[in-house]
Each structure stands twice: as structure tokens, then as C-alpha cells.
Amino acid sequence: MSxxxxxxxxxxxxxxxxxxxxxxxxxxxxxxxxxxxHVLQDIQTLNERATRGELDITAISIHAYAYxxxxxxxxxxxxSMGFGYGPMVVAKQAIAPADLAGxxxxxxxxxxxxxxxxxxxxxxxxxxxxNPVVVPFDEIIQRVVSGEFPAGLIIHEGxxxxxxxxxxxxxxxxxxxxxTTGRTDWPLPLGGNAIHKRHxxxxxxxxxxLTASIRYSLDNRAAALDYALGWARDMGxxxxxxFVGMYVNDWTLDYGDRGRAAITELLGRGHAAGLIPKVDxxxxxx
Length: 286
Known about the structure:
By secondary structure, this protein is α/β, with parallel strands linked by helices. Helix content is 38%, strand content 19%. The strands form 2 sheets. Strands 1, 2, 3, 4, 5 and 11 form a 6-stranded mixed sheet that branches. Strands 8-7-9-6-10 form a 5-stranded mixed sheet. β7 (104-107), α5 and β8 (131-134) form a beta-alpha-beta unit.
């Protein structure tokens, strides 16, 4: 068909991302000339691909955004934010946050926001570094349970299921964020969606379509949740609904001033600690 423009859309194989893009995946929206090819990969892989500019639109860690400023702009919708909750360090027995310094910890990727935030949190407690070992995010809990690692940094639905595996929370980065900033009205920045700048003037139209997909899912929650259950990794409906609600909500439709200020603060702290390049300003498609 002439005039069709195919765009690659990278996102994680997780219920929250699947929920967001239900409208696109099931052709519920008028997308004009655009057709979206869904590319499902874990967030660390998507972050790495973003550094090479491979995908047209991609989910991205806010941490990784600092490395792709020349290639991608953030979309105003698609944020994953934690509001007093977020990634956490878990172990078989309680470990004081200060004792994580110098410890080997399984992490889901060195470009994830969770890893940046853990480094900042531990640096505040004494300066010794965590020794990270990258492990697929969906293997971390079991590899901590097996004793292979003394602790693990968990993301995605592991935040709701770690207790079933017999693990305990050692450090909740959502709570740490509120404590360290003193701003309980700020969300913890985790992920977002970004679009390659090569699309120029078309970026706004594409952005509006993606926003419409998220809004469609929120307005048709039962159907979108049923679709998202295909990526729920043995979660029941109630648990999947809780998880989706944590990360697909009003923040997802628009970061807002507080969300953008929180991102600026996180990236500023990361640069001041020597962990990431300097980000002079956030570039959004508005």
C-alpha cells in the first residue's frame, strides 16, 4: 500500500508496556499513514540499541537518556514513575543499606535507572561501591534465592512477588528518593518513551498517536488488561492489575512539571556524582 510509513516501536515484554500499547497492537486507533512494528526486548537491550539509534521509537531508561541526547527526544507520554515505590534491593535476610557497599549485587543492567539510583543511594552511605553483576531481570529473584548472589536489584513485577519467594526488602528506592530529595510530591523517574530525531516535523503526530494509545487503554481498562495478561509471567488478574496501575496512570499520560523537575534532579545528581554525562536540558516532543 503506497504512502504507508512503518515505524519500529521497542518496548519491554511486560504487562505495563503491553497495556500501554494495546490500542496499537490491536488496531483500535486511527494511525494515519503510520504502522507500528512492535519490537519486544528487555529494557537493558533497548537502552543499548538506543545508543546506536536503531529503533524509531523506544522505551528507554531515564538513566540511558543521558547517553542518547544527540539521537532521541523524549515523548511527553509513556513515563514509568514510582510514587513512593520503585525498584528495590532484596535478599534472603535483611541487609542494612549501608552494608550493601562493597557487596556483589545482581542488577538488571548498567543503563537502567534502578542501577543509577542504587549507586546514588549507596554513595550517600559511605562511598564504597556496589559490585554489580548483570543478570536478566526475570532471573534475579531466583538466583538470590539459590544463594548465587547475596542480594538483587529488582524491577518490574518482582517488586510485588519477591516475598512469595521468601525474600525481604533491604532498600526501597522509591522511599529513598523521597527521603533524599525531601519532595514527597515528586515521582521517582524510571523510564520513558523516546523518538528518533530523524523524524523531524512528524515527531508530534507520532507522539499524539502513542498518547492516544495510552489513553485508549486507560479508558478500556478491562480489555487492555486482558491483553496485558499475556506478558504477566504467572501473575493473576488482581496482581497484574495492581502492577499496571503502579506504572500506567496519569503520570504516564504526561510527566507534568513535577515529573520533569524530578528527571532534571536525578540526572543532575548522577552527573554531579560522576556517573553520567551532563544533561543541560530535557528535550521533549511538545
